[in-house]
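Example 9 (inverse folding). The structure is encoded as follows.
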């Protein structure tokens, strides 16, 4: 397991019966999480005092129920990195706290002047980590709204003028164009969804297209490439399976496992997706 246990302003207080009880700065929230499939005694008194609860709908999706008025958004800090967070659609908060272990890995393995390609880059946690290490970043996501949040996070951290290129595009099509242009990268990060659509309605299904994407990415790695990092939250796709594919495509040294967060009330860690790291 790769456990993100260095947080100070985020805490996974408890997890039970398909939900997680979390502390986001000054506010306590309850969000769905099918990984916490057990139904045992609740171990934390804040379950009944949460400031907001995300209620799933039987027809899909859901909505937030607010038990007190919260700010539209607020800042949460991880080490020297700051992020805007807020209750968003489909239970999201704007960052995935379990990714902190990857942010540490990125900062430990990139140096000044390295070039990073961040695909399916979301709100830019990995891009910020790379920028903190001095890397030049190309940040690609199909959602214009999400890119706007990533830019706000960069500005919050003093990187408004840092050499980060924000690209609203279909990731596979962008990499194909980079191959034609002859552009190379020293590291690649990706966090592909299980299912999604590109800027022009292109359909993405991870199990059908991940191999082709990795083959494209291999062609934009530089001669001094350092790593490829692949995240997955897709049910039924294991770290071992992605690791085997990555070994076939890239070679290198493979590290694979589940991302996890420590559950404060239970002295165990809750798995939250998986990661494969390819080191060269």
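The amino acid assigned to each position is listed next.
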């Amino acid at each position: 397991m790769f456990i993100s246990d260095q947080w100070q302003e985020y805490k996974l207080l408890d997890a039970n019966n398909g939900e997680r009880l979390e502390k986001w700065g000054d506010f306590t929230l309850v969000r769905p999480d099918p990984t916490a499939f057990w139904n045992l005694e609740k171990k934390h008194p804040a379950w009944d005092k949460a400031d907001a609860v995300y209620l799933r709908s039987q027809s899909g999706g859901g909505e937030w129920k607010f038990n007190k008025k919260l700010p539209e958004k607020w800042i949460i800090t991880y080490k020297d990195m700051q992020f805007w967070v807020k209750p968003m659609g489909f239970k999201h908060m704007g960052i995935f706290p379990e990714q902190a272990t990857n942010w540490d890995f990125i900062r430990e393995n990139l140096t000044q002047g390295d070039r990073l390609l961040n695909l399916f880059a979301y709100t830019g946690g990995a891009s910020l980590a790379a920028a903190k290490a001095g890397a030049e970043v190309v940040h690609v996501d199909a959602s214009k709204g999400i890119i706007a949040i990533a830019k706000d996070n960069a500005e919050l951290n003093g990187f408004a003028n840092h050499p980060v290129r924000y690209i609203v595009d279909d990731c596979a099509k962008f990499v194909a164009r980079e191959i034609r242009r002859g552009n190379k990268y020293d590291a690649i990060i990706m966090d592909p969804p299980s299912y999604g659509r590109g800027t022009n309605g292109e359909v993405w299904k991870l199990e059908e297209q991940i191999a082709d994407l990795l083959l494209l990415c291999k062609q934009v790695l530089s001669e001094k490439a350092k790593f490829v990092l692949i995240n997955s939250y897709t049910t039924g796709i294991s770290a071992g399976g992605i690791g085997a594919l990555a070994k076939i495509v890239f070679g290198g040294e493979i590290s694979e496992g589940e991302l996890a967060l420590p559950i404060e009330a239970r002295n165990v860690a809750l798995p939250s997706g998986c990661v494969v790291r390819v080191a060269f």
